[in-house]
Design goal:
Elements (H helix, E strand, L loop, with lengths): L1 H54 L1
Length: 56
């Protein structure tokens, strides 16, 4: 039984490192996407202001 739990623990530790890398890269991706969305909102706000200025 101990050999099974040892091999299971080794398997979990071998999976843990790549999983943290995957989660870190997802966190970076989400941060980048949210920054892109904020940038798009800012750009859309700028476009709206330009359109309003042209109408006036």
């Amino acid at each position: 039984m101990s050999s099974v739990s040892d091999s299971y623990a080794a398997l979990m530790t071998s999976y843990a490192a790549p999983m943290t890398l995957v989660f870190d890269s997802y966190a970076v991706l989400i941060t980048l996407i949210s920054r892109q969305i904020q940038g798009l909102h800012a750009a859309a706000g700028g476009v709206e202001i330009e359109i309003e200025a042209r109408i006036d």
